[in-house]
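ok, trying the design again with the full structure, not the truncated one.
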């Protein structure tokens, strides 16, 4: 089984919580790309957006992902929703481990993010922004993911169970030389 697992998907899909559950279950390290950016810059994500702009944030995000993808120990990485916009990030994820898309309906995401507080891209009208961003990113999540979990009606523990079962199937296919 691959020893780097990347969780992708929209804001509100549950990547951070599911990542923590999975890392616990596997005994792997857990990294969160937003958390890594905050740690390396000493600023919060909203602060970086407000003071330096989205382009500067995306550069920090790419650095954080490169560090996570180079991890020498097994790791589950919760990848912030917009990281897939950068083709270089997509190539990095694709060659560095297994990618799982936590897919959710826009209504589910909107209910989970509420007012969008702490999420700069959602400040004005979270449901509309989520719908727009999801439509733009869906093909990228789709293209990258070896596994898709529909998370709308599942608690994080069951999402994690589905991923663990899916990873077993992926590794059995790899052992048999399928999909190569
Ligand atoms: C963003 C997602 C956020 C954070 C920033 C931008 C995006 O992370 O990086 O607010 O563009 O989708 P989460 O997906 O972890 O909420």
């Amino acid at each position: 089984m691959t020893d780097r697992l990347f969780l992708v998907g929209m804001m509100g899909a549950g990547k951070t919580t599911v990542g923590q559950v999975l890392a616990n279950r596997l005994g792997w390290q857990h990294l969160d790309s937003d958390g890594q950016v905050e740690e390396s810059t000493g600023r919060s994500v909203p602060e970086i957006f407000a003071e330096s702009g989205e382009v500067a944030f995306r550069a920090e995000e790419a650095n954080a992902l490169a560090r996570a993808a180079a991890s020498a120990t097994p790791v589950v990485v919760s990848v912030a929703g917009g990281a897939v916009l950068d083709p270089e990030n997509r190539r990095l994820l694709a060659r560095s481990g297994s990618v799982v898309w936590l897919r959710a309906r826009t209504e589910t995401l909107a209910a989970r993010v509420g007012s969008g507080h702490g999420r700069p891209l959602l400040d004005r009208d979270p449901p509309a922004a989520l719908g727009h961003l999801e439509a733009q990113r869906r093909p990228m999540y789709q293209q990258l993911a070896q596994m898709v979990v529909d998370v709308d009606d599942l608690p994080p523990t069951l999402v994690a169970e589905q991923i663990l079962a899916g990873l077993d199937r992926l590794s059995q296919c790899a052992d048999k030389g399928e999909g190569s």
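Keeping the full-length input from now on. Residues 11, 15, 34, 45, 80-82, 119-121 surround shikimate-3-phosphate (CB under 6 Å).
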